[in-house]
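During the no-cost extension, the postdoctoral fellow (Dr. R.K.) reprocessed legacy sequence entries with the updated structure-token encoder. One reprocessed record is reproduced below for audit purposes.
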Amino acid sequence: MRGQVPDCAVQVPGSLQEALEILAREPGRWRPLAGGTDLMVPFAAGRLADTRFLSLQRLDVLRAVEPDPEGITFGALVTYTQLRQHPYVQRHLPNLAQSARVTGAVAIQNRGTLGGNLVNGSPAADTPPSLLAYAAQVELTGLGGARWVPVDAFHTGYKQTVMAPDELLTRIRVPRPEPGFHFYRKVGTRAAQAVAKVCLAAYVRVEAGMVREFRVGLGSVAPVPMRARAAEAVILGQSVDRLPLAEARAALMEEISPIDDIRSTARYRRIVAGNVLVQALMELDEALSRC
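Re-encoded structure tokens follow.
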């Protein structure tokens, strides 16, 4: 059974205020619709229960990209194409540029949005691991005002978030990282247009040969995108030329909770996630040796 367009109602507010008023009048009844790339697949298959959509396409305020000396703020409707082409992202946030580059095909990148990728809540989404590695925050806005939430506290369960029914995700804020090492890898069945079996992003800052900052974001290995905090703790404060790779790998493999599904097995995901972490740390050592 396929979804039927005549069964659906769509409202297209002309301002953010109007959109929030609609959500406040009927909390939970209107499904926000941005690029639609995540919603159209279950809709076409007849598996999407929602029939009332709030299109955000006229809310140009959510398309802004605002760099400043402290970081950069993206409107929720910024597309993957904008991300991968933006000079600031390419220079300072290469993991985010790479995660946008490996998301779907060009048509998906032209339409899909950063905010939608977060709100959809898929643990296999490509951009959240990079946002986790960069300590990003999201802005949630309702009629009563706005609040900022760290990305690592945004997802609470599979397809679940802390966003209230009368709120919209309006902006994503990424602090500018100090010069450091950036790593992103997506493991999938194919080199392109594949859902991740494992995704890992890392940011490392080294000072005087010691690891002073280390953040790892993971996808497809738990019900939500997650930080590898146990593995991070093993590496933080360590000398780069004596990193405890085996200990960090074991810590990561212990803290994740992958599942068996049609794309892979839990055992494969656990082993590969540990191996990719080791790969990242070995590439860090190689990068520093070339300096």
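DSSP finds eleven helices and 14 strands in the chain. The chain has a mean pLDDT of 94. The remaining legacy entries will be reprocessed before the final report is submitted.
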